Amino acid sequence: MKQYKYLLQEKDLPTHWYNILADMKNPPPFYRHPATLEEMVNPPMPPPVFPMALIEQEFSKERYIEIPDKVRDVLKLWRPSPIYRAHRWEAALDTPAKIYYKWEGVSPPGSHKPNTAVAQAYYAKEEGLEGLATETGAGQWGSALCFATQLFGLKCKVFMVTISYHQKPYRRILMETWGGEVVPSPSSETHAGRAILAKDPETSGSLGISISEAIEYAVTHDGWKYSLGSVVNFVLLHQTVIGQEARMQMEMAGDYPDIVIGCAGGGSNAAGLIFPFLKDKLDGTRPDLRAIFVESTACPSMTRGIYAYDWGDTAKTGPVAKMHTVGHGFIPAPVHAGGLRYHGMAPSICALLDQGQAEARAYHQNAILGVAVNFAQSEGIVVAPETAHAIQATYDEAMACKESGEAKVILFNCSGHGHFDLAAYDAFHRHDLPDYELEQIKIEQALAELPQIP
Ligand SMILES: Cc1ncc(COP(=O)(O)O)c(C=O)c1O
């Protein structure tokens, strides 16, 4: 008899996060100070914008870090999350590939994002803070942080990229329902926002700009700190509950993936699924495992950017990291996958790409929505446009199996639902969805502003 889902019990929720830095022969280099560009060898990062416990995790070389009980208690609201075997989609594609997906859309905000939001709110509360400021693209991260902060009795201020603020009003309402305060970014509330608006009052905004605003808000308000939903080590660390659960579930299914896939904006959901498997490739147990990180052609940091030091935000207030980047000044086209519109990528993922341990690819939004519709018609789930990028890569790999006759095992992270992204599906159905052909000159202009580090 066919089995469709692989379920774990609450007691199976991982007790520790997995830190891939402990297993990398060449981990990413240290961050650089945003102003002096000197190596920041020891924490805390000046200014210490994050709670101290998170800064310690950022620099930790421990392989496993214990998850506090209070964090696990909240995660149990929806975790462990299910793994599905996509029998119906496999049949529809007529592929010999065995397709599995880890479904993170079961969390209250509808994505993987609360896996770290809950941990960050917990450490902020422990430090005695009043609130956390953050940025959000699609609104998934902002809603996850509002959900988490209100559970711990904290305030939340969200700078939401202007284009998404208008495209996704329901995400804003969700954030407000969970007690958050949301403003379109760039806003007139910060120096960084006002400077951008003075140059371009009609700008659609970018995650880089919103990050600058949120950092500025945090450092200019007593009792507030900044919270980031992706890119940095501690966020990727918190997401590894996904991959650790998935390992147990794949064992239940009697399979081990040949290919693991995730969409990547800053890289957190993909790393969360992939890193606990990649451990086996790094230690030589599974040398043939393929890991694929998938981005948008509108913001192609991994596939067209360069591997260099760059600021994490537009106003150059955050640390400088070595990463694949299209430049901190790059403003991507307003694709519906708002969460994939970040100019850089997690430094740990970039180091793994550079060392040949992982692959990257990019897709246009019409392609990914087409395959998301196809997936929905077999599996029922209407995914977020970000997630649809992972589905497109899975589709391509499944079709390659059809061609070669191989029955490869493919596992992808189904990072979130698209219930607040139906406007994207509507535009797709009406053939009214532009694909953006990115001019090389725009990337080159943005790259010309990179910091000069010998
Ligand atoms: C559903 C979903 N998937 C993926 C992403 C991309 O973020 P990350 O690369 O950090 O997982 C986002 C970001 O907003 C998202 O909302």
Structural write-up:
This protein is α/β, with parallel strands linked by helices. It contains 18 helices and 15 strands. It has a domain at 5-12 and 65-110 and 234-443: Rossmann fold (3-Layer(aba) Sandwich), CATH 3.40.50. The protein has helices at 52-59, 69-75, 87-93, 114-126, 140-151, 162-167, 169-177, 191-199, 207-219, 233-238, 240-253, 268-282, 301-304, 347-354, 365-379, 385-404, 422-429, 440-447, and strands spanning 5-6, 16-18, 64-66, 83-85, 98-103, 131-136, 155-161, 181-185, 224-226, 259-263, 290-296, 306-311, 320-325, 359-363, 409-414. The chain has a seven-stranded mixed sheet, with helices on both faces. Strands 8-7-6-9 form a four-stranded parallel sheet, sandwiched between helices. Helix 5 links the parallel strand 6 and strand 7. Helix 15 (365-379) packs across helix 16 (385-404). The mean pLDDT is 95. Pyridoxal-5'-phosphate binds next to helix 5, helix 12 and helix 16.
Task: Please specify the SSE layout and strand pairing.
Blueprint (H helix, E strand, L loop, with lengths): L4 E2 L9 E3 L33 H8 L4 E3 L2 H7 L7 E3 L1 H7 L4 E6 L10 H13 L4 E6 L3 H12 L3 E7 H6 L1 H9 L3 E5 L5 H9 L7 H13 L4 E3 L6 H6 L1 H14 L5 E5 L4 H15 L7 E7 L4 H4 L1 E6 L8 E6 L21 H8 L4 E5 L1 H15 L5 H20 L4 E6 L7 H8 L10 H8 L7
Helix pairs in contact: 2-4, 3-15, 4-5, 5-7, 8-9, 11-12, 15-16
The structure holds pyridoxal-5'-phosphate.
The site of pyridoxal-5'-phosphate (PLP) has 21 residues, from helix 5, helix 12 and helix 16.
